[in-house]
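User: Hi! I have a protein structure encoded as tokens and I'd like to know what sequence might fold into it. I'm fairly new to this, so please keep things simple.
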């Protein structure tokens, strides 16, 4: 187990160094921070002085090593557009993105797993066919179109839910939460559903596929031969083994939801990291772009590591293979 963890940690470290290198290259090849800070009318002396002050006149290796050291400490410099600390901007926006992703993932799991089980157990019925047709529609529709349709129906036509913003978040220490008020929940529902649709349909189809495969295995036939009820076979044996790969996909999807919430946050003007990144791209704000890239990579690495450990602890076959190898 310890060797498994150490190997995963080394792999995670290598990934983060590579991502840091890519983020550093943004500073080298996307715009020039000196001209962004001084303007086009700056004199050559001012440009040389600022380059020296920022350390941009040093070698590539020295600059990258300094960037890596600052990144480890969470220091990505100052936003070229807003003139504020990039780390502070990320910390301020992260709670909004995390809560949106958490609500979307919870909706996807709570709805997708039962629908997937239903579609597997009732695969010949018309309701099962309707569920699968709906899942195909959910996979096919682009996220921005889903968001616009939800705004049109629930905000414009019915006036039930707000179409933009986060409401008035409540501060809990340094964390700002919109899930502690009714107004906050009203604001999060539409973007969360928009973000959850693709993940929900993916989980639904995966659960159905895995459930059908498990139901054809020998131990399920043996359980039926022992006289166990359908409920015990379906939920006590089949579903338990079905959820092992589903857990892996769901964990990895949480990282994707956080990373690719950009479109949803833009459509609903949700004040999270995705909207901050879009604004940074518009103004070529390289420090924010680099910080966002490193932040998302770190989230993916941590989630992947946690999922691997959970998978290792839940699936006895992996432990048996590891024991046999030694």
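Assistant: Happy to help. Inverse folding works backwards from shape to sequence: for each of the 326 positions I chose a residue that suits the local structure. Here it is:
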């Amino acid at each position: 187990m310890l060797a498994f963890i150490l190997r995963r940690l080394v792999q995670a470290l290598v990934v983060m160094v590579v991502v840091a290198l890519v983020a550093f290259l943004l500073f080298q090849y996307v715009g020039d921070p000196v001209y962004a800070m001084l303007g086009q009318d700056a004199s050559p002396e001012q440009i040389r002085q600022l380059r020296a002050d920022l350390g941009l006149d040093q070698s590539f290796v020295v600059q990258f090593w300094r960037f890596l050291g600052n990144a480890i400490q969470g220091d990505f410099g100052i936003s070229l557009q807003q003139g504020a600390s990039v780390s502070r901007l990320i910390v301020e926006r992260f709670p909004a993105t995390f809560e949106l992703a958490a609500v979307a993932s919870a909706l996807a799991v709570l709805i997708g797993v039962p629908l997937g089980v239903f579609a597997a157990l009732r695969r010949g019925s018309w309701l099962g066919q309707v569920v699968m047709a709906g899942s195909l529609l959910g996979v096919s529709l682009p996220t921005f179109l889903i968001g616009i349709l939800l705004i049109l129906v629930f905000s414009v036509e019915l006036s039930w839910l707000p179409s933009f913003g986060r409401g008035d978040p409540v501060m809990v220490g340094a964390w700002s939460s919109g899930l502690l008020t009714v107004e906050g929940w009203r604001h999060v529902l539409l973007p969360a559903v928009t973000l959850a649709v693709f993940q929900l349909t993916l989980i639904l189809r995966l659960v159905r596929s895995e459930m059908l495969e498990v139901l054809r295995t020998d131990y399920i036939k043996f359980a039926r031969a022992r006289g166990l009820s359908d409920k015990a076979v379906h939920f006590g044996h089949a579903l338990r083994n079905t959820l092992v790969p589903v857990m892996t996909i769901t964990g990895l999807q949480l990282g994707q939801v956080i990373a690719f919430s950009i479109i949803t946050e833009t459509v609903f003007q949700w004040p999270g990291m995705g909207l901050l990144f879009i604004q940074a791209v518009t103004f070529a704000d390289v420090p924010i772009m680099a910080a966002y890239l490193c932040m998302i990579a770190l989230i993916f690495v941590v989630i992947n590591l946690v999922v691997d450990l959970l998978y290792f602890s839940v699936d006895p076959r992996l432990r048996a293979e590891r024991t046999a190898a030694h």
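A useful reference point when you look it over: The chain has 14 helices and two strands. Feel free to ask if any position seems puzzling.
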